[in-house]
Amino acid sequence: MPATPYKPAAIRPNDGLYDDDIATNLAETFDYCINDGGLDGQQVARAFIASGLAEQFERQNPVYVAGKSGFELASLLATYMRVPFPEFPASRYDRSPDYWAGWSVAWFQLKTGRPYRAAFDSFSYKDLREMYHPLHEADESKFIEVLQQKLDALNANRPTRLRSMREAFGLSQSELAHRANVGLRAIQMYEQRNKDINHAQASTLYRLSRVLGCGMEDLLER
């Protein structure tokens, strides 16, 4: 599978039609990659994003989420990673912690609409897998709740992309406001996350990006 630029899907086009297929296939993909292929979980998570397979799952492309088995998807990732992979899956009866991790992250994406990158970029695969205890006996909604709380806590302490861009460019908030013809209060609220820059007018994003020498999408929060 060729690598493609990562663009998180913004919609769920099939209204839940493939939800169970998505969760099962992602669970099996991680299970087979790690427990049959002997691959490192963190590398598998990164390959899932970088290969473009995560985008196909977010877009609920039936070719991938329903038309292929978890073992076939695991083989695709192994091919992308250029590592050997067994021809046939091993027989197993119990669901592993890796199966649970894939299943839970899939439901997190389905229920919140947040891209897979939100989980895999913010936490190591080991961190996510270790949530197996004590959450594996709970409904997946509990995993979603806990992971959402962890992400919110991380984001609260992380500077916004606007602030990072502005500081890298060596501008104060007032200087950026003047050059971009954007209200100082608006910039302050965007940087404090009291106002969602993802919902800013295109003209505002355009003026800010021109001053900061970046693309409009570079200012959006993921």
Describe this structure in words.
With 222 residues, the protein is mainly alpha-helical. The protein folds into two domains: 19-156, no CATH class; 161-219, lambda repressor-like DNA-binding domains (434 Repressor (Amino-terminal Domain)). Helix content is 61%, strand content 0%. The longest helix has 18 residues, at 19-36. The radius of gyration is 20 Å and the shape is elongated. Mean pLDDT is 91; it is low at 2-6.
The oligomeric state is: single chain
Summed up, the helix count is: 14
How many DSSP E strands?
0
Radius of gyration: 20 Å
Uncertain segments: 2-6
Question: Order of SSEs, N→C?
Answer: HHHHHHHHHHHHHH
**Span between termini:** 25 Å
Mean pLDDT: 91
Helix content: 55-70%
Structural class: mainly alpha
Strand content: under 5%
Total domains, how many?
A: 2
The backbone outline, from C-alpha atoms, is elongated
Largest sheet composition: none
Concise description?
Helix content is 61%, strand content 0%. The chain has 222 residues and is mainly α.
Keywords:
disordered N terminus; 2 domains; mainly alpha; elongated; 222 residues; 434 Repressor (Amino-terminal Domain)
Summarize the SSE layout with pairings.
Blueprint: H1 19-36, H2 41-50, H3 53-58, H4 62-65, H5 70-81, H6 97-112, H7 116-122, H8 125-129, H9 132-135, H10 140-156, H11 161-169, H12 173-180, H13 184-191, H14 202-212
Helix pairs in contact: 1-5, 1-6, 6-10, 12-14
